[in-house]
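Good morning N.,

You mentioned wanting to compare the apo and holo forms, so I went ahead and generated the holo version with zinc ion. This is what I fed in:
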Amino acid sequence: MPHFINVILPLPLENHFTYSISEPEAAFLKPGMRVAVPFGKSKVYTGIVSGVHQNAPDVYEAKPIEQILDKTPVVTTQQLKFWQWLASYYMCTEGEVLRAAIPSAFLLESETIVQLLKDAEVDEMALSDDEFLLFEALQRQSAMKIAEIIQVLDKKTVLPVINSLVEKKVVVVNQEIYEQYKPKLERYIKLHQRYSEEAAMHELLDDLNRAPKQRQVIFTLFSHTARSSDPLKAKELAKKSGASSGTIKSLIDKGVLEEYHLQIDRNQFEEGDLDELVQLNEFQQKALEEIEDSFKTEDVCLLHGITSSGKTEIYVELIEKAISEGKQVLYLLPEIALTAQLIARLQNYFGEKVIVYHSKYSVNERVEVYQQVLQNSEKARIVVGVRSSIFLPFHDLGLIVVDEEHESTFKQYDPAPRYNARDAAVVLGLMHKAKVLLGSATPALESYFNAEHSKYSLVNLNRRFGNVLLPEIEIVDIKDKHRKKRMTGHFSDRLLEEIRETLSNKEQVILFQNRRGFSPILECNTCGHSPQCPNCDVSLTYHSHNNQLRCHYCGYHIAMQNKCMACGSVELSTKGFGTEKVETELKALFPGNKIGRMDLDTTRGKHGYEKIINAFEQGEIDILVGTQMLTKGLDFRNVRLVGIMNADTLLNFPDFRAHERSFQLMLQVAGRAGRTEKRGKVLIQTYNPHHQIVQQVSTNSYEEMYKEQLEERRQYKYPPFYRLVRITLKGRDYSRVNEGAEWLATSLKNSFAENVLGPEFPPVARIRNEYYKNILLKIPQQQSLSKTKKVVSKILQSFKAIAPYRSVKVVVNVDPY
Ligand code: ADP
Ligand code: ZN
Ligand code: ZN
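and this is what came out, ligand included:
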């Protein structure tokens, strides 16, 4: 009997592909192992085995595989099931999920580029002949493709060799898109060789008689080496001897001490350094009990706890319980870069049991984390990560925490799978029989709705920790202030007063403006022209620090213009304002204070955020201006005042969620004020002081906002009452996109009538020279989701079969907002 396997290829293919294998291979192969297989004319891909069987495919002849790449599965059967769910729910292929789900280093294929790992420590004796050959070849040639490696090694089956070198940390694959892997180094101190003799030592101590601090350092080091052969960290030496880093440095300069560096594991903690869990206050305790109670009968719980109510400590208690039962924990965060604070807190409690999965991690770091989780290692009991960490190979999840569950960054927009990690985490939890806790001060409308309708349980926490009061919120009517000439630039007299007072008390200020750049739009007073991006349908944004006009969609930029590009007039004016403008005005108004800015432009690079956040924490910045990055879970102790420069840009966003999002953003940014005893203050500047959302923010009325917004959603047929599927067509040929969209909308309307909206151009209808057109499908609650998707898929297939529309790309997005 012939044997076959089904293989998931990392390509957008509807079906699994079948390959033929030998009898011994059939006995060896298990679902979740990697195999190298031929596909297409002459390409080789790495695929994942999804099943072993004896049924030959009907329509094609199964080709044999090239190689088995694993001894044991790298993908668990749970993951395979989860991928299936993701593909069917989000209307993409399992191949697309596979690509997102496992580190690219696992997916060697014809186009893979192999390079030596920089600064690799290579034990040449530990390499096989083939491995050594490749290692040597890579020293002559900095990067090689698989095809070239096949030539050098003179054999077809090179993927196992590369895999093994990846594991031995000799080579990296596809590195060019990522940052280089940098092992973390720790500084150690030792006594210079010449003092190893006792006599020399005594002489030294005598010499240092008149330098007691230095003497203490030597003494500490001496008694350490007497007791232990472990190296001593510079940090510890300073701590134990009570010496400053200056004292130690002068001993190094004298040649008495020597410093050296050792590579440390990214997550290394000594047990003794761990903090005890804090004592919960009565409100936290009650919330914890309610959550645990609900977990006896329900799987998902929503914790609605106001900002600074101490939700994290409750999570910590639940995490502690789960790991003490030997389970794994997943802690999902909207964005890692902004939460170094939180990670530090978790590591203080759980030490090296915490592992972090970062969006800016390099290929190697991702592989490391993936392997630790796969091996169910003690170093990966608690995974803290961004949305993509739902793809890690968990064995036995006991708890999933989704912190700031309302955040839109849990949704992936591009490429497929276009999943929402919060929603997917609920499904993942069910598969593992794990409990799921969603936490937020401003829950997503859907989550609150689910809680109200008993899909989730609901626990409230209405007190800030330490009985700190919620900040006092004041609304400033800037239309009125303009009329009365009480505005200085974009600052009302009230905001300026409060800033002055805060600064004079040596406290800090946060100013929120949801737009980067200087003055978004440059306009000619004579002819009305404003410079546009040639590739996208948007105006260019002025950035003063480099005197450029930039496109925020494609990065196109030109020098700032002194004359109108259309009529040549020099009378140009700017409209609107961004963070950079706020910063410039502040510098003029408060020349004696340090002003910092946090937005996409100042936080590029791996440590961009950390630098700014640290400087603010250390008090090196008095006023921090920023975009919505400021809202995410930061805990600053000394901020008394938060100013929202202009609420209206948020409220007027063309999206059915604009009001919900404005409420969440404003309340979250307000929550940064007054986290200690002294009550904080929030000023909201707006042209619409009576807008219901502004009012609801000022009175902290989540429930009221929820009821009102829910009513609107019901009326206008939006989630949670209707599910949405957005179909976007895009292409370089304007009329093809237009015709295609009409065709598709018409076909959809045949099946779904008035629940099809569009086609419509989005607000920015052309990006990077591609035209966009959207169709929105609304699915009522009583209509079967899976049947609907089947019909949609059929229609899309017919669409793709029409020759003139081949050049039009179709993107399907389920739950797009
Ligand atoms: P939230 O996440 O709800 O906004 P946090 O968990 O950040 O709030 O807590 C706010 C502050 O209160 C933090 O600085 C935290 O260290 C402190 N805190 C919370 N609970 C306790 C506790 N039980 N004992 C001591 N400090 C606590
Ligand atoms: Zn002009
Ligand atoms: Zn552009």
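The CA atoms of residues 262 and 458 lie 49 Å apart.

Happy to go through it together on a call whenever suits you.

Best,
F.
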